[in-house]
Design brief:
Length: 280
């Protein structure tokens, strides 16, 4: 078993794409990050960490980190491969903010990382990956879906900041950069009922599929069906655009959003956990 670290996304993608696409739902975040690095490299100006563990030419695991964000792990064929990744990261990026991935993979990596570094950690979110292939009819609400434009920038910065605070995660995040990237990629959509009342990001970032998220509705507009309408309309738009399916993450601590998305036609695929390391 050996680990290969890549200095550029093109080489990583050439080697990892077949494995990542083999488990498209589980890897939708890794595939989305790869797409962004390939086509919108200015979104993540710092060099990414790109690695695969393999044996006899067979990939056992892959990992991506786009600083300052957390490490994202792939589905793993041999959990021992995660020890290789942890050892390599200890030299490459000892100040790791956290890790996200499938449950068994994350738990194994955390144990390896703690053994190597003594680092303690806390679970931030328990999530579930969902997949949709057909949008189910939902109750009609007033308003319409539209693409966000430059004129929406101040509102988007405010909403993105509030969303980050609400999920309870302290993230080293350049909100302006995130908004710039979303506007450039034309991935930010708003549900407008006279004024913008809900927001969902989504784009075709996989060969035949799309990712949706984050989704945010300010507290004063909640309970009116806006988020449901926004996600349903955006999902249909992406299917009409040529996607066979859409993926999104739900927070298991939020039963309302899980109910909403399943009503639209999203079906659960697998669990995903997100952890932060504790410093100081």
């Amino acid at each position: 078993m050996q680990l290969r670290r890549f200095n550029n996304i093109q080489e990583f993608w050439h080697n990892a794409q077949d494995y990542l696409l083999q488990y498209e739902a589980e890897h939708n975040l890794l595939l989305g990050l790869s797409h962004t690095l390939l086509h919108y490299p200015d979104r993540y100006p710092d060099p990414p960490y790109l690695a695969i563990a393999q044996t006899k030419g067979k990939i056992l695991a892959a990992a991506i980190r786009t600083p300052p964000h957390k490490l994202v792990l792939s589905k793993t064929q041999d959990l021992n491969a995660l020890t290789l990744i942890a050892q390599d990261l200890q030299d490459y990026s000892p100040q790791l903010p956290g890790v996200s991935g499938l449950v068994a993979e994350v738990e194994t990596f955390l144990q390896s990382w703690q053994t190597l570094t003594g680092q303690s950690y806390r679970r931030v979110m328990e999530l579930k990956i969902h997949q949709l292939t057909q949008v189910e009819p939902v109750a009609t609400v007033s308003g319409n879906l539209r693409l966000a434009t430059e004129s929406d920038r101040p509102l988007l910065v405010e909403w993105f900041t509030n969303f980050s605070a609400e999920i309870g995660e302290v993230i080293s995040l350049d909100v302006e950069q995130a908004v710039n990237s979303g506007l450039k990629q034309q991935s930010i959509h708003l549900w407008s009922d006279g004024i913008p009342v809900s927001w969902a990001s989504g784009s075709k970032s996989l060969p035949a599929a799309a990712r949706i998220g984050p989704v945010y509705t300010p507290p004063e507009y909640r309970g009116k069906g806006y988020a449901t309408a926004c996600v349903a309309a955006l999902s249909q738009k992406l299917l009409d655009y040529g996607c066979d399916r859409c993926f999104l993450f739900t927070d298991l601590a939020n039963p309302t959003s899980n109910y909403i998305y399943q009503k639209i036609g999203y079906h659960p695929v697998c669990d995903w956990h997100d952890y932060s390391f504790i410093y100081g």
